[in-house]
Amino acid sequence: MSTTTVKPPSGGKVNRLGLAMADYKGGNSTLCAGCGHDAITSQIIRAFWEYGVEPHRVAKLSGIGCSSKTPAYFLGQSHGLNAVHGRMPSIATGAMLANQDLVAIGVSGDGDTASIGLGQFCHMLRRNVPMIYVIENNGVYGLTKGQFSATADYGSRSKGGDLNELPAIDVCALAIQMGCNFVARSFAGDPKQLLALIKAGIAHRGTVLIDIVSPCVTFNNHEGSTKSYPFAKQHEELLHEISFVPFFEQITVDYEEGDVVDVALHDGSHIRLRKAGKEFDPTNKGEALKMLMETNTNEELLTGLIYVNEHGQDFMSSLKLVDTPLAHLGQERVQPGAEALQEIMNSLM
Amino acid sequence: MSTTTVKPPSGGKVNRLGLAMADYKGGNSTLCAGCGHDAITSQIIRAFWEYGVEPHRVAKLSGIGCSSKTPAYFLGQSHGLNAVHGRMPSIATGAMLANQDLVAIGVSGDGDTASIGLGQFCHMLRRNVPMIYVIENNGVYGLTKGQFSATADYGSRSKGGDLNELPAIDVCALAIQMGCNFVARSFAGDPKQLLALIKAGIAHRGTVLIDIVSPCVTFNNHEGSTKSYPFAKQHEELLHEISFVPFFEQITVDYEEGDVVDVALHDGSHIRLRKAGKEFDPTNKGEALKMLMETNTNEELLTGLIYVNEHGQDFMSSLKLVDTPLAHLGQERVQPGAEALQEIMNSLM
Amino acid sequence: MDAFGSATTEKGVPVSQPSSQTTVLDEESGERGVPVVNDFSIQVATVNGSGSQSANSVLMRSIFQMGIPVSGKNLFPSNIAGLPTWFTIRANKDGWIARRKELDFLVAMNPVTAREDVETLDAGSVVVYEERLNLSSIRDDLTYYPVPFAKLATEIASDARLRKLLANMLYVGVVGELLSIDLKEIEAAVAKQFKAKQKAIELNLKAIAIGADYVKENITKSDPFRCERMDKTAGKIIIDGNSACALGAMFAGVTVATWYPITPSSSLCESLTGYMETYRHDEDGKATYAIVQAEDELAAVGMAIGAGWAGARSMTSTSGPGISLMAEFIGFAYYAEVPVVIFDVTRVGPSTGLPTRTQQSDIFSLVYASHGDTKHIVLIPANIEECFEMSRDAFNLAEGFQTPVFVMTDLDLGMNNWMADPFDYPEGKLDRGKVLSAEDLDRIGKFERYRDVDGDAIPYRTLPNTDHPLASYFTRGSGHDERAVYSERADDYKRNLDRLNAKYETARTRVPAPEVSLVDGTRIGLIAYGTTDDAIAECRDQLDREFGLKTNYLRVRALPFTTHLSDFFDSCDRVYVVEQNRDAQMAALMKNELRPDQIAKLRNILHYNGIPVDAQFVTDALIAGEKEGS
Amino acid sequence: MDAFGSATTEKGVPVSQPSSQTTVLDEESGERGVPVVNDFSIQVATVNGSGSQSANSVLMRSIFQMGIPVSGKNLFPSNIAGLPTWFTIRANKDGWIARRKELDFLVAMNPVTAREDVETLDAGSVVVYEERLNLSSIRDDLTYYPVPFAKLATEIASDARLRKLLANMLYVGVVGELLSIDLKEIEAAVAKQFKAKQKAIELNLKAIAIGADYVKENITKSDPFRCERMDKTAGKIIIDGNSACALGAMFAGVTVATWYPITPSSSLCESLTGYMETYRHDEDGKATYAIVQAEDELAAVGMAIGAGWAGARSMTSTSGPGISLMAEFIGFAYYAEVPVVIFDVTRVGPSTGLPTRTQQSDIFSLVYASHGDTKHIVLIPANIEECFEMSRDAFNLAEGFQTPVFVMTDLDLGMNNWMADPFDYPEGKLDRGKVLSAEDLDRIGKFERYRDVDGDAIPYRTLPNTDHPLASYFTRGSGHDERAVYSERADDYKRNLDRLNAKYETARTRVPAPEVSLVDGTRIGLIAYGTTDDAIAECRDQLDREFGLKTNYLRVRALPFTTHLSDFFDSCDRVYVVEQNRDAQMAALMKNELRPDQIAKLRNILHYNGIPVDAQFVTDALIAGEKEGS
Ligand SMILES: Cc1ncc(C[n+]2csc(CCOP(=O)(O)OP(=O)(O)O)c2C)c(N)n1
Ligand SMILES: Cc1ncc(C[n+]2csc(CCOP(=O)(O)OP(=O)(O)O)c2C)c(N)n1
Ligand code: SF4
Ligand code: SF4
Ligand SMILES: [Mg+2]
Ligand SMILES: [Mg+2]
Which of B129, B275, C528, D538 has its CA 20 to 30 A from that of D33? Predict the structure, then answer.
């Protein structure tokens, strides 16, 4: 892959590709001022810039919702597709089949993923389709004016005061069940953690699930909401402090053994988890599920890298495709020769 | 509810309603000889007969598949609905909304439930719709001639010899995640256990999930299959021995403390779990999930009552409906009076 | 911008349409001095999420309360806050409430669109705007009233958020004063808007007063537009179509409603919920209904069908994308013969399209919903009263015919506020259809689910939990015989499919008949349906007054067509079918049933840019058609 | 059984159809003695899952190898084992291979259906049956050949399972001997059937020999039916339509296929998988394609669309229910302009309907798929050769027009085995459509995704991962302008929707033209499409020979219609449109485009009971029509 031809603005700070952060920006957001989604957009921009992903290699995908609009607000030099409601996973799967060189990032909402999209979401996880799947989780359908979604917590109240009597779907626990090998939860109000997680996600091969509590300031930021800024701030429970060391930087050993777990990622990058309170091993599935169950019952908002496994096989490799992306194969490679047809015809005579 | 008017065949063995087992039979099966599904059908017939459910109160529901055909083969005196593929849960939900006096039993397949129907399945569980949901799990799409379904185990082989490289969806673990309060797994070749579980399911209020390995003798009973009779027989791991004591029978205390767990069910019936090998408490979610995860990795087929909780609120009660089924409300109760309309009109002037 | 785009447009409505930008009406109002009373269109340009909606409602309602026929249309974006929104109020003494393309009175509050908003006005229009926007320089054929809204707002409240909200009330005061709207009516409207919230009422009235005072002290009115009290709205109500449908459903005794949010239909089940909570609980507080927000449209319609099968009066509501997703299940309900009512509040397609714009382009999707040979009943309200009545009809037809019945409205009717006559209380029994009870079965001693016993092709059904040995049967979407037994026999299959066809023929005689107006001495006909009706009414008047052209009119109110359609074509030489879609979908259905000589008379007039069709558009198109046509 | 059902039927085909049970052909064959050579229909009645399929294939193939035109149709149930199945083989020296209603030669192996199977035969037919069934008592106008199949089976093998399988080969031997089919050809057919499996071959031949010997020793032939070698099948192949479509796709360079199993389309992607594994792997074993079994149809079409968007030649295959589920996504691909090929192997609807019977009733669902104003391209193969060719056309059109393209076949064509000419190797370049590379962008220096640059309404696109600053754009199903920027402007919206319409008009000139045969001196026309073609060919011959009636014929091969359709109507006075659906769906599309005077000529002939239409049915209907019509 050659690097993109855009020149760095003389003088400005640039990444390893010589690109300025501006090269990773998109159109202006049309979301409500203060919407958590915009905060996430900023960290996506920063993460791809700092990591130095070639913009043209990125495919931005989404479903329908306020959250699903955000791909138009970052990486303006990347192709994007805003699919129908809840079906982005199948689009992403198809896009990767056509071109496995793509770096796919999908942005979805809790309604788009956990309500209408639950089936496709689970099957994408099960296949372990290589992509970063971000859920901007506000517990409501923002774009349709604030109805409860399937991640709204039991007992939480809508802006109108209605009580939600259904249990929330924990998309992280679900993802682990479905075999996802990179499961994280974060909060739009925690940019530092978010940034590290997204960069780590870029370095992972396979589906990367990042569930981000992203308050809807217009419809779900009130008293009684469990997805509001105040509630999240009060109830956030850091699993650990996260830092990311990209493959192109030196790892410095500046910590005492024990209180830091260092996870080597697929592309040689590392993610460092510095103990914060709880004892926790993010490479242990059972422990991860148990931890989620506990924190859910205690109304804690557990954030951090909940489960990671760098040894899983992703969907593309299981297909054993030629190295050239299928989309770029010439006629001579995709249309068998006349002798092949002859052979088949003979077998049918 | 008056009991059904069918007379017991003079002399024949009858249940507490005076009905013979024949009154719980359906049409002749058109499935392959030896199909696991037929074995399950027999136990459903026996369970409803022994428990003494009034046939006319039962609603039989299914999706599409060989398994989904079976409701035509039991309870011929009950209404049945064979829906479209994968959407039985929504039909069941609607039917219960219309008439909460119904005893709903749904029969589905692994494809119908875990492939196309996964979304509806999860949302039904999340709502805890009162019904018995039976999955006749053979790991393949029988009716379309044996393709892998989403419950086919990683590494298992199709009749044609193809390797399945995707992880299986564990519908029991999933059900627990989704908040289901009665989760069991059984095997078509274990009629005794099956019978006890179905009867216990009738006694439970809320969604009852029974995942039953039900070999497809035509397309998935070969070497390399993990859903075949031989494989299941070899790998079955009984969680416990199960017996069911209906509310209308005396409980006899004929066991030493400790080695038996006795669970009181919603309608006063009891289910008794006699320890068999493993130490296990079916009322502990975390333990249940851990147990499933372990046995899956050890290729064990864990059968028995995996998780039960009799204190959960079911969907219908959360709706706080009038006692008369909505379907039977007369016009006077569903059409507000003239003064109501007047009041509304005034408010709009 | 290309050739098209750069041409003068009105909110992006291309002029590549039967034009003649100025109409006779405009010329009248164009003359300065001569007062133009109770006949003008106001447009308020703001950004959404700024709370301007209540201000606009107050403005519309106060004019309404002066007895002047009025309509309001909200042109809003598919996002939650910060994008351009236009609210148009049309006041018309003759009762024409269709959208009018030409505006007379612009309130320019949105800097982003102000320039285009002004550029697209007709000469002689009035512009009220935020002083600092300096719009007066744009052109010199308009009347400008600059107002320092921002500055005035500071006088109202200190709290910024509150100020932002109240700022909108300023223009209510300004416009009210300029159009001499009775202050008492404005006060009454405010009181209505904010119900018992005394504090809010006071603050808003304060804002209004400040706006009015500013005009009194600083503006000398130089435009002709004025309101004068009249008596054309006495006793009328104001309500949106979705609420009217909800009321129709409640008074039709709906017991199960399952839905998934989607614009523009969400407010239908939301207002239904509101009404049911008030009027459908027993003394002990228990509900005589269940409303469930499903996880998606497949589940919503599945639940509604399951409920209909088990005997509930069930419904769901959605819009285009939902209809597409429901297709498979709708075919099931058609073939298995399960009643269910489906509201489709249409928006602009294809795909996500323009979710907050209006169109009538789901007709094929509804009438032919699902694979295989399927034909469905569709009811098409054109106004508030029909939203209420046809919702009830829909349930009676669905249970009467044991089949899905659609009620098709659109965003314009569903989400906008309309004047209407108060609803008559629905008398008469609900038609619960051919349902056999245990007693019936005892009497008859025989039950075959799919047998045509009465010769109307409508079979009898029983409900689950009917305590009778004959009651049970098995419902399926696969082939079955009269006894509902699974069958792959060609004769069983064909006989059943032919009966379903016969059932549809029976429906022709029971669906709401079209509204037909035949005028002596003319052979020109207009056909329309749904919200297009308002434009047609005014258009017919225009044709009469401006061109001395009388027209017949048939308004389709349901599918399948009744015999009236054919008769209407016979009574005309040329028939213009006016639709708000690109592909002339309704006309295509007509062609499939009419005689060739009738088809020869058919002409299409199509308006499908997402903006409600206006009378002038139809008039121009018809005149153009007559020029060649005849 | 009710009034209808009790009437004499043939596999439940109601006689309530243009009947005349015995046709001229039958009378011929009726006369004993006079040999009837290479012109008869055999029906083998068994239960499915009994392994009779290979026996039937052997029988069909051995007749084929004798140079006699032959066709085989499998009438099987929607279950896996134990239900009635009928396999009909028609041998016809003149090459008529459509289904023939009348049977000459019944092999009654299924006790359950034996009686009705015999009752519905025409006089003079032959019945081979299991001795113990005692069928000869049913009627005395047939020729009976009892055979102790069960007893004979015991001679073949001891193992019960094996015996059950081989038992079927017994009747191959019996029928072969009775019809004097060359044993060498039977042996060759067996060899072909069981490939290299020597043991299987021996066992089967043994069974066949036993059957043949039994006839030699115990039966004196008293029926006229006989096979004689001829040369009409030399060089031909036998293949099913789904495999032919799969081959078409493979040689069209498909790179991504995503599907969900459903009868009757499953075998399309399954045989595609088989072929691709053999012919589409590089030396190092790596695949130049991806075939994914999705979790359902929404995912299958979503993956195919995602792949099409990213530049793959992508496809999915399904049947009616899947089409209904795909509707929303299809509208997305239409509006966002993403190429994708969708095979619809149609079955009997509505809903689950009769999954293993054939019909042509998805036309509305395909051409109008999805809500809003949508129109789609549909290719309609009528035979094996076209399955191969049109699959390739479909990919070229999909990428050429950047839109979904359907290939509509049906169960009859897709799942049955057909004679065909070997396929010509497809020469020429694949049309990958207007895709701009980085180099192109450098050259042009400008890219607007949805601008009509060439005047054919087809815009240019770029693929993700195109390393050029101009390459990127945002694809969406919501409103957008030429630059693919989100827009709610009415003018942007209308301009775009009009362009999509223009694109469809362009498609008229590029889709496969209909096959037209005009005969001098006749003004009677027939129109059909898809598998109905075989019946029409024979019907036209019947009309000519039996009634001296010459007919013109147009076979629709694609939607949208080309100009040929209008011309054809002009060259006829009456046009009979023959369809295998209830609602005359194709005729409805024609009425929407034809002139009234042309529509006046249109008549419908509809056959929709799930059994392939036969020539006699069309002939009778047309003659009846002519009686009144003219
Ligand atoms: C098939 C379909 N159904 C419904 C809708 C309406 N709709 C648009 S966005 C949305 C929910 C969005 O919620 P979420 O995914 O949580 O995104 P958010 O707006 O909260 O960020 C819905 C129901 C639609 N566009 N398509
Ligand atoms: C919408 C739709 N897609 C596909 C099918 C075809 N189909 C019928 S049954 C079936 C799968 C059945 O598998 P499962 O649920 O496991 O039942 P089993 O036959 O194995 O008991 C499929 C894909 C269908 N009927 N409808
Ligand atoms: S409505 Fe909520 S989710 Fe949508 S943009 Fe506004 S704040 Fe964000
Ligand atoms: S195919 Fe398999 S699942 Fe279906 S009936 Fe036969 S054995 Fe049972
Ligand atoms: Mg949300
Ligand atoms: Mg299965």
Answer: D538
